[in-house]
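Hey, can you fold this?
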Amino acid sequence: MAEKKTARPLKGFYKCPFRECEEEWKDFESLKEHIVETEHGTKDMLVKCPVSMCDGSVECKLHFDWKNTKFLRIMRRLRKTIDSIKNKYYNLTVEELIKERDTIATIIKSFVINGSVTINQEEFFSCRVRGCNKKYKALLGYTYHIAHYRHSLAEMITEYSNINKSEIDELKIKAELADEKYINGFNLVDVEHKYSPKHSFTAPLEFKNDFHNIDPKKDKFISKKKIEYLDVSFVAKYNAPLTENSLIHKLIYKGEVFDSKTAKLAFGMFFYNISEFILSVYFDNQSRNIFVCSKSSKVPDVLYDFKAHPSRIYTFDTNLQLIKTINFDYGAARKIVRSCNLYHFILFKDGKLRKINLNDGSCLEEIHRDGIVDFELLNDDTILCSDGKRLYKIKNNEIIHTSDYLPCAANSIVLKQPDKEIKPFMFTKKQTKHDNSKNLNNKFYVVNDDEENKMLNEIREKLDTYNIYCTTVEGEILAFKEDLTDMISVLYSFTSKLLYFPKFDVFVITDTMNNKSKVLTVNKEFIRTHLFLENNIHCSSVVFNTIVSGGYDGTVYQSYFNYNKVKNTELVKFHRSGSDLLMLDHIDEYAVLSPREGYDYSTLIVDVLEYDHYLFIFLSSGIILKKLIKN
C-alpha cells in the first residue's frame, strides 16, 4: 500500500506593503524596523499574499464596489498600522533620557538645573532650551510655545558646542540614542509658570520621529535672538583679492586652522585633501565606492583640447578612507559610467572612450571613435556619444545610428529617463489662456489659439517620446528620437550646463550669461522655464526631497520646493586666500566677506552627492568634505 503523502505547510512571511518593495521578513518587529528606516517614496500600498513564493496582491483602491468593501477595510487598517509604526511616540523623563547618555546629559543639565527651568523675564519671556532663543511679550505666548513647539536636538547640540567652544562627537550622540528610532526633536510639557526664581520641570520630554512635519504657523514668535557669541573676526584676515589658482595647504573653520591631509572638524564633519586638482567624481551605487579623478594642471579644462598626460583616479569608501590609487597616461578622466558587466566606461582627456577595470586599471576595450566630448550609457551597454559634429549610437564597437550634422558644436549629452513614480514638482501649471505670447527658442511672438494648438501640441507630442537631449556651445538645447533620425530645437538660450533629475522629471539649466539657473519642464502639457537660483550652478544632486547644488563661486545651496516658489538655503560657502581655504556656514560670516569679480576656479564645486545622511562636497582644488545633512 502506497504511503500517503502529507502536504508541507507553506511558511508565512511579513511582506512590506508598499508597492514595488519586495522585502519580506520572518517577524513583525523586523518589518516595523524596515518601515521606519526606509524611504519608499510612495504612499501606494498593496495587500500581499504572505506566502513567500506567491506574488499575489490586491490593489484595494481600485475596488469601490460594495462587494469588495472587506478589502477596503483591510487597506484602511493597514494604513492605520503603518501610521502607528511611523508616528510612534517615545515618552521619556529627564532622568531616563540622561541615564547612561553623558553628552546629552551634559547639554540638558546646562539649562535644566535640579529638575527646573529658570525663566528670565525682563522685557520678554525667553525660551531656555539651547538652540531655540525664541522670546515672547506675553506669558500666554510662552506657555503655548512650551506646550506645542517641538525643539530640535540638532540645534540644541550645535548651540551648546558653539558656546563652550568644544567639539561634539556626532557619532557618540548617535550611539547614545541608538536604542530609540529617529529621535530628533522634543517638547517641554506641563511646565508650571510662576513669577519666582525657579519654575518646576516635572513632566517628561516627549519625543516623536516626524519633527520636520511640524507646522510653524502654530508657533508664532516675536523675534529670534541673534547669536552674540559667534566670533567672525577671523574672516576679515582672509579678505584678500583673487589670486591665481592654487592647491590648498590650510583649511580654516570657525577660526581653527587644519593643515593635515585629513582631519575631523566640529559637528561630525570630515575632510580629505588629495593635493591635486579634481576634474570629475563618480559614486558607484553597487560597490559604495567614490572615484575621484584628478589632473596635473591647475588650468580649467577646455572641452575641445584633447591631450594625453599623467593622471590618477582615487578610490575612497564612504568613510573617506583611501582604498587605492590608479595611474593613467590617457589624460584626466572627464566622465565615468558603470557598465552592465561590472566594468566602467571612462572618457579621458585625450578624447578616447575606454572600458576600464578599476580594480587594476587595465583597459579592456577602446571605442573606435576620436574626439569624443561626452557620452551616456543605455541599459544594454549601448553607447550614445558625440564628437561635437554628430551624435552616434554604438553597440559592440559598431555604429548603429548616426544623427544629422548639428547646427553647431555639441558640448554635453543628457538622457531623459524619469523614474516610474515621479515626485510632484512645483511647476505644474499651464500658461493661462490670456497669455498668448509664447516663447519658443526665446523668440517672442503673438499667435492665435489655432496656431498655438497646431504648432505647440505637435512639438509637445513629439518631445514626449524623445529621450535624448544635447546642448551646444551656442546655448541651444536639442532633442532626438531614439534612433537619432529626427532633431527638435527645444530652447535657444545661453545654456552652458544641462542637468536632469529623474525623480522630478525636470531639467535644471545654467544661464552663465545672465548668472541664473532655471528649471526646464518638458512634457505633453507645456515646455516652460522657471527661475531656480540667482546664481550659476555647476552640479546638483537630489537629497531626500530637495535639490542640493554646487556653484561656480564655491557656494553649496539646498533648495526646497512648494507649488509657488523655491526656497534656497546656503549650506556652506568656500573662500580662498592664497593657499588657505576658508569654510563658512553662517550668515554673519558671509557678511564679512568682500565681493569679488569673477570666479575662483580653485573653489569650484565639482560635484555633490548624498549617502547615508551625509553630504559629500568635492572642490576643484582637491578638498573633499563630508557633512551631516538633515532629512
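Oh, and this one too while you're at it.
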Amino acid sequence: MKAQLKRKIAGVFEADMAYKILTSCDFGAAVKNKYYIKLLKNILLSDNIKFKILQEVRAVHGNDIEQLQVIPFNESKQVTNSTTEYQKTTVLQQRISDEDYLSELSKELGSNSILFKVRKYILQHYEYEQVIDKIWFSKLEVANEDNVNKKDIH
C-alpha cells in the first residue's frame, strides 16, 4: 500500500514538490482513524499539502482515516519521544491489524467457509502471514462452495 500511496502522491503534486515529499517522509501506519507520517528531513508541510496527502491516504486506505498525524523531524536527537511514539504506534497498528484482519475476513467470507479456514490457518502459522494472504489469497473468489464434500469450486 505504501507504493500505491507514493504513486498517488507523485501524480497529485508537481514533480519538484512530489520529489520533496517522497524523499522527506516515511509513510507509516494507519491506526484507527489516524495515518502517521514521519518526517525524515527538517521540512515544513503546509496545511494545503497535508490536506492533499490526506486525500490520497483516504483513496488508498479508505475514508475512515480522518486525520493525518505528522511526526516532526528533530535534528538534535535521533531518538525522540515522537520517534518512540511512532514505533509504538507501528507495533500497536500491527496488533490491531492482526486481530481486526481475521474479524474482517470472517465477515467477508463467512467463518464457516473453506477459504476463510485456509486463510486463517496461513495467518496463524506462517511468517509474513498478512503479506502472503493479501498478495495471493485476497484475489480469490469462491464461485461455488460444495458444503457436502467441503470443496471450493472455481
